[in-house]
């Protein structure tokens, strides 16, 4: 597994396709809804299978304030789940956040992802928004040393 920053049209195409398939399509959202207005201001990361070149997972990070970086859109493809892909992406995000000067990393975690974040050093702070009228999110935080 290799963690890269997508840079080519093909890499970004794979990256956004995974985001759509994992984070929007199951809730019947239209293609294109996987993109965010501030994507151009974020650092995007993707895990690649070195043998096949296939995307395994992806996410992005941006500075939310002077001291907080925010992780968004962490997704791992079905055949790569439970294979440490999410953990490796999270480690890469933490490294990027530290380089940007962040003291804390925050995430708006979906209900089903809270335990993943807790296992990786995050603490739950409070419930935030309800996405698509059914997907509860929770703000979680991890101090970066």
Description:
There is one protein chain. The protein is an alpha+beta fold and 145 residues long. The protein has three helices and seven strands; from the N terminus they run βαβββαβαββ. It has a seven-stranded mixed β-sheet, sandwiched between helices. The longest helix is centred in the first third of the chain and has 15 residues, at 9-23. The radius of gyration is 14 Å and the shape is globular. It starts with a strand and ends with a strand. The mean pLDDT is 92.
Provide a compact summary of the structure.
The chain is of the alpha+beta class and 145 residues long.
List keywords for this structure.
seven-stranded mixed sheet, alpha+beta, 145 residues, single chain
Secondary-structure topology with pairs:
Blueprint lengths: L1 E3 L4 H15 L19 E6 L6 E9 L4 E9 L8 H15 L4 E7 L3 H6 L3 E9 L3 E9 L2
Parallel strand pairs: 4-5
Antiparallel strand pairs: 1-2, 2-3, 3-4, 5-7, 6-7
In angstroms, what separates the terminal alpha carbons?
25 Å
Structural class: alpha+beta
Number of strands: 7
Could you spell the SSE succession in H and E letters?
EHEEEHEHEE
Q: In percent, how much strand structure appears in the residues?
A: 35-45%
Neighbour order of strands in the largest sheet: 1-2-3-4-5-7-6
Query: What fraction, in percent, of the residue positions are helical?
Result: 10-25%
| Average pLDDT taken over every residue | 92
**Main sheet, how many strands, which sense, barrel?**
7 strands, mixed
Low-pLDDT regions: none
Morphology: globular
What is the number of helices? 3
Q: What gyration radius follows from the Cα positions, in whole Å?
A: 14 Å
């Amino acid at each position: 597994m290799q963690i890269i920053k997508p840079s080519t049209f093909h890499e970004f195409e794979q990256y956004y396709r995974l985001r759509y398939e994992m984070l929007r399509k199951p809730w019947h959202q239209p293609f294109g809804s996987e993109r965010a207005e501030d994507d151009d201001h974020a650092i995007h990361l993707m895990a690649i299978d070195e043998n096949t070149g296939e995307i395994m997972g992806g996410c992005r990070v941006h500075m939310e304030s002077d001291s907080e970086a925010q992780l968004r859109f962490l997704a791992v493809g079905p055949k790569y789940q439970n294979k440490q892909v999410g953990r490796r992406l999270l480690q890469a995000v933490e490294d990027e956040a530290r380089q940007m000067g962040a003291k804390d990393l925050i995430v708006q975690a979906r209900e089903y992802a809270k335990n993943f974040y807790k296992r990786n050093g995050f603490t739950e702070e409070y419930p935030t928004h309800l996405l698509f009228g059914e997907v509860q999110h929770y703000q979680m935080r991890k101090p970066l040393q």
